[in-house]
Amino acid sequence: MIVVLIANAVPSTSWSPVNDDIFQKVFGLQGLAVFASMIAYLSAQFIDVRVFHFWKKLTKGKHLWLRNNGSTIVSQFVDTATVLILLCATGAIGWDRFIPLLENGFLFKVLVALVDTPIIYAVIYGLKGKIEIAHYDED
User: Fold this and answer.
1) How many domains does the chain have?
2) pLDDT in tens, 14-69
3) Contact 85, 93 (CB under 8 A)
4) Which pLDDT does position 30 carry in this prediction?
5) What are phi and psi of 13, to 5 degrees?
6) Which residue of 12, 70, 75, 103 has the lowest C-beta tally within 10 Å?
7) Domain that holds residue 63
8) What is the pLDDT of residues 75-123, one digit of tens each?
9) Is the pLDDT of residue 139 over 60?
10) How far is CA 47 from CA 17, 41, 57, in A?
11) Can you give 3-26 as a three-state secondary structure string?
12) How far apart are CA 72 and CA 39, in angstroms?
């Protein structure tokens, strides 16, 4: 981020195919995007942990697929919506793009969550017996 800020402050050379205006259009909103992303990430992580443990307690430590996917679906919706709301509210992107970006970003994240579930089960299966994995702790 600092490199982009410095590069943005320095004028382009006369022979550069990328002039200052183009560079600003591409990288000028980078700080805002990083800020929006960090706010969204922190909010989503907080929600993800809470929802995961809610489902863990409700299922008494069973149904890892439900905990993993349920918490990820909720938290990634919050993540995607938060980033887009902040970017739309500041004018970085138009509100007309909000719904398509929300749908596509959220769908991609849900698909990744579904794909990683068998991988999580395989890793846990491989680790059983090698390290102690607590099945269910009521706290």
Assistant:
1) 1
2) 888 877 787 777 776 677 788 888 999 999 999 999 999 999 999 988 888 899 89
3) no
4) 73
5) -75, 160
6) 103
7) 40-127
8) 999 999 999 999 999 998 999 999 999 999 999 999 999 999 999 889 9
9) no
10) 45, 10, 15
11) HHHHHHHCCCCCCCCCCHHHHHHH
12) 17
Instruction: Report how many helices (DSSP H) and strands (DSSP E) the chain contains, helices first.
Output: 5, 0
61 and 55 Cβ atoms separated by less than 8 Å: no
Domain assignment of residue 113, yes or no: yes
Q: Domain for residue 120, yes or no?
A: yes
Whether 3 is in a domain gets the answer: no
Number of other residues whose CB lies within 10 A of the CB of residue 36? 21
pLDDT at 19: 79
The CA-based angle 16-17-19, given to 5 degrees, is 75
User: Tokens 């579930």 belong to which residue?
Assistant: 117
- In this structure, is residue 119 part of a structural domain? yes
